[in-house]
Amino acid sequence: MEGATKPLFRDITADDDVPEITEIESMCMNCHEQGITRLFLTKIPFFKDVVVSSFACENCNFKNAELQPASKIQDYGVIYTAQIKKPCDLNRQIVCTNYATIKIPEIEFEVPPAKGSLTTVEGVIDKAIEGLLQDQPVRKIMHPEDAEKIEVFVGKLQKLKVIEEPFTLILDDPSGNSFVENFHAPSRDPDMKVNRYKRSSEQNGLIGIGDDEDVDDDLSSDLIGKDEVLAMPMNCPNCNAPSSINMKRVDIPNFKEVVIMACNCDACGYRDNEVKSGAGIEEKGTKITLKITTVEDMKRDVLKSDTCSVAIPELELETGLGTLGGKFTTVEGLLSNIQSQLAKSNPFILGDSSHDNSSSKLKKFCEKLNEIIEGQRLNVHLVLDDPAGNSYLQNPFVPEKDPNLKIERYERSFEQNEDLGLNDMKTENYC
């Protein structure tokens, strides 16, 4: 019974003296006799959950080993756009999943999706040069014109390494699991822009999942009664053990109806909730600004949609679109989620690859957040900016106006409509 409660994917530790390895008989592709495939489910930093598989055949001694990512596909894809201006920018670390594409538009260079890797900007360039020069001696004899073109392009790549001119590196990962190091974490990096986007049907097919639109339509339908809790089986997002997710329609006073989804894993104790709006996108965006003046403000209810960004100007903190997902919590809970998300979204700050300066900076930043949560640092502003207009922050003085709460409605920009997928949406004469 004790083994049944362990997470499916576990860290490799000395305490786990009997790791669970699954052995399966399978055909050898070399001699077509029966061999043994061994599967080991574990966690590796940056790549999270992975499946390590090895095959061995006793008949012909053929062996093979592979590593397959098994981490959760994020709700949104992500695009990192980094400006490489100085030699130190070449040391910016990059985690690429096997769905990520890297581009350098200045020289029309693109690296298609390949095996997952942990590298740097310079490492990406070096690997490209190595691949292009691999068969160059033979190519010079067989196809001299192609070899000459490759030599010219390799020269362009070499110039990037000495930063003769600034260039742009773009990483696009529809799975949302790639990272590019933020030199200024936990603050915003002025030389890097992070955009999260809703995947297209083609991208969903590429990573092997169905369309999100089908799921959202089911959640907003009448399949879930107002007084009904719908339970669906799923795997825990943290340990991947079998669990369930509960869904319920909730009518928030002075706001609108939403669908709250909550999961509680018995195996690892993981708890989380997510909110989906049941009313679609509003005509205008909403910006909510709360001035935190007392500890009681920490108890205000907050509905943060998955299209909402969060900012605390006094700490120079700003999260991007969809960073924390949809949440129904309190101000205190939201700030605590930001703390835990900082380490998750900046993996290079922790572990063996971290720099002392970055680690101490994150520690000081978390201390400032704790001061706000505990009421030691007041008169700071919490800003919720939701282009879809589906976020809410409780006004305890209803129907009176809250002097510390400011709500603004604004016209969305072209970029915000693009992020929401509205620019390509045709609502008239579509027949």
TrEMBL record:
Compartments where located: Nucleus
Chief localisation class: nucleus
Domain Zinc finger ZPR1-type: 26-182, 234-395
Entries under Pfam families matching the protein: jr-ZPR1 (PF22794), Zn_ribbon_ZPR1 (PF03367)
GO cellular component terms, semicolon-separated: nucleus
Superkingdom field: Eukaryota
Keyword Metal-binding attributed: yes
Family of the protein in this entry: Belongs to the ZPR1 family.
Protein known as: Zinc finger ZPR1-type domain-containing protein
Species the sequence originates in: Lottia gigantea
